[in-house]
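Preliminary data (for renewal application), zinc ion complex.
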Amino acid sequence: MSFQELYNKHCKQGHHYTYGTAGFRAHNSVLDTVMFTTGIVAVLRSIYLKSKFVGVMITASHNPPEDNGVKIVEPHGEMLVQNWEPIATKLANSASAGFTQLESALKAITDELHIDTTQLACITVARDSRESGPRLLAALRAGISVFSNVKIVDFELLTTPQLHFLTHTLNSSSSPSTVKESAYYDHFISMWNQLTQLHHVTELPFHLTIDCANGIGADKVKELIAQAGSVLASSLSTVNGKTDTFQLLNESCGADFVKTNQTFPANCSPEPSQLYCSFDGDADRVVFYYMDDKENKFHLLDGDKIATLLAKLLADLLHQCGLSDTLNLGVVQTAYANGSSTKYISDDLKIPVSCTKTGVKHLHHEAVSNYDIGVYFEANGHGTVIFSSKFVETIDIALQETSKTNKNKHESLLSLQLFSQLINQTVGDAISDMLAVVATLSILKLKPEDWDQCYHDLPNRLTKVIVPDRSVFVSTNAERQLVSPEGLQAKIDELVAKYPKSRSFVRASGTEDAVRVYAEADTTENAIELATKVGEQVK
Ligand code: 16G
Ligand code: ZN
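Predicted structure:
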């Protein structure tokens, strides 16, 4: 089919597209056009990067089943570089205006970037379990097929982090054609086995129930458990794994539901002191929780608790290797991080903490730029740990130099090396993060309650306010202060001054047409009151 015929078949006119925090996301019925143009963008990006594999993931993460979305993955597994986001937006909105507009926008871009569209493009694609996935994939593939010299690896159903990992693996492999989905399981199971064997972990200190949000993570984590062997198989089980009942996706379950409602998901019968976790719809996000044995209350172990657990283990290992001064370790958070966690990391763990804007790409960038070991997590459970090339070289050399006679140091070095591989460094990954947390708790022999003891969350409240135009809410200082509308920040400051240990900020959502209000304070009543009063100022 010609370019125009493909366009006519898949594109509709009239919708305005915006590249949000994590790509395009909307009701599936308006997405065919943007899928088509995202196929084109991925091809251009791959050619621009000298035929490296570029990934395209079709997912709407924790959003409702009828939504969908698309995001582009860079060759080494990062999210699309930010200066290409306007290109993606431009092509989508041109296609939405008409074929001629799309054609001329494409020409303008290829001319400006000197892209020869006859060169080879290499693309990986995958989708989550949504009903609209196959149709939108067809639109995406049509966009790709506008170009003649393309190699596509279609992984079909994957979690988002699997696609990030496999895209990176393909680009690093000398024989890309042999890279299959199994590379993901082989890698993480091997690292898990080596790390837990090194520490003689023969059983977990709890049973872990995984709530899979009825999303694609269910099928993939089951596959991993089945292949992993007895330690995991005997201590892990899954609930909410109905991937093929589309309307159940994220319904009363999943990481977003648990974090927002601070309660157990559907189909989970909690037992005291056992551990639970929830993935989101595309398994790039995980939160843990448990019920205590005294009051049978729900306790959330969110992204902040994950970050502190992992940062503490890594700091201890660095110390045991005598490398604390050679390799710098830091934690990256967003404004949503609970104030107690920030205080614990800087005052008790004595680890530097930085704060960035919301969205994985911002945290990732900050971690890469500042630290040899950068632990980054959003409170909602998105995050990972990244390790610099200096880390890799330093550990390699130290391992060679450390004779087996210094057994403790050798073991700590090896632990660091294995740990860096057990974590999916390309992007936050619910499955890999879960393995890293479970390994840490098993090595340190910690029960959920022990993990939870490190600090106590300040009571907090997150609310959403619908406003006529969220774009007037412009913030600075990693979204902690507003510069517009004028005068609003002063009013927030005045309110905050009235409550002990309090903090509040307002920011425009990057994924929804709304403004979010966050408040924390010494008591739940005060946090709610503060959030309500700040919310009233926003309306
Ligand atoms: C996206 C981001 C997530 C962030 C959320 C904030 C990625 C992969 N996802 O889902 O990290 O927490 O947006 O949503 O970056 P908001 O702007 O609506 O508050
Ligand atoms: Zn997600």
